[in-house]
Design goal:
about 290 residues; alpha+beta; 434 Repressor (Amino-terminal Domain); Beta-Lactamase; 2 domains; 5-stranded antiparallel sheet; 14 helices; about 50% helix
């Protein structure tokens, strides 16, 4: 039998979802009187998941170390987890130090190769690592997202840009929704990377310096990377651009690298405006 390893992260996660779910929504008629537990009681989740109260309690406390896929599926259903949250639960139950921390990977990414990849696209495009540090980017990304080439290396980070840069949020029309999505992504990957000192340095920096990040972090939301995440920009001159962000993972066989490219939303005029922006940007160099 495969041995599964996980820390109290799984217990903390299902506890937070138990607290979130109200008895009425779970189909449980609450007893008269005041409930001291926010959300469901442990015995109520155990009943809904068809497991013993003792077994469920051990899961929350981190004392049960080998939950079966069937049990996880039953608990997912009992707690009404969405698709992203259910995947996160299964990921936590299968944490394996050898698989997630000791997998051989290149010492340094091949930035020449990666730069050639992003330069193939007209659309804004960049490749980032597991820390959300932007490693390479194309000219479209510089014009739309940020002038990465003029930023100090330690500030070429999407989390830093989103929460700590004073100008970037002013351009991002749907900042709240996108920041909420990004925070949920960080929470989903947190238990996989929390042993990485550089990852924790970035994380603590956000917590110390961004009240918005703390506010969104405390929502305990979980999201997985997916395609077609909307972003909309409005520039000081009134130019508006609407994109969906698409991501490919494990670039060049490195599980920590992901390639993001921003595709114009059809019917918004973004395709034409982006083409004009890129043409105007190229004119001075072409005349030189």
């Amino acid at each position: 039998m495969q041995n599964r390893h996980f820390s109290s992260a799984l217990g903390d996660f299902i506890k937070s979802r138990r607290y979130r779910l109200q008895p009425e929504k779970a189909g449980i008629k609450p007893f008269l009187g005041r409930r001291r537990t926010p959300g469901l009681r442990r015995e109520e989740v155990a009943y809904l998941a068809n497991v013993s109260v003792t077994y469920y309690t051990w899961l929350e406390q981190g004392r049960e170390t080998n939950p079966s896929p069937e049990v996880l599926a039953q608990i997912s259903q009992a707690l009404q987890l969405d698709g992203d949250e259910q995947k996160h639960l299964f990921n936590l139950a299968n944490l394996d130090p050898v698989r997630h921390h000791l997998t051989p990977k290149p010492e340094q990414p091949d930035t020449v190769l990666l730069q050639n990849l992003v330069d193939q696209l007209r659309y804004p495009s960049y490749i980032a690592n597991e820390l959300a540090d932007v490693i390479v980017w194309n000219r479209g990304a510089e014009l739309v997202i940020a002038d990465f080439g003029h930023l100090p290396a330690n500030e070429r980070n999407m989390g830093t840009l989103l929460f700590l840069d004073p100008e970037y949020p002013k351009r991002l029309v749907n900042w709240e929704d996108y920041a909420r999505y990004m925070t949920a992504l960080i929470r989903a990957s947190f238990d996989f990377y929390k042993e990485n000192p550089m990852y924790m340095e970035r994380f603590e920096h956000l917590k110390r310096n961004s009240k918005d990040f703390i506010r969104l972090w405390e929502l305990h939301e979980i999201r997985q990377k997916r395609s077609a995440v909307p972003v909309q920009y409005r520039f000081p001159d009134g130019l508006e651009l609407a994109f969906t962000i698409h991501c490919a993972t494990a670039i060049d066989n490195d599980p920590g690298l992901h390639w993001c490219f921003m595709v114009p939303v059809p019917g918004t005029g973004t395709e034409e405006r982006l083409a004009t922006l890129l043409t105007q940007d190229a004119e001075p160099s072409s005349q030189a």
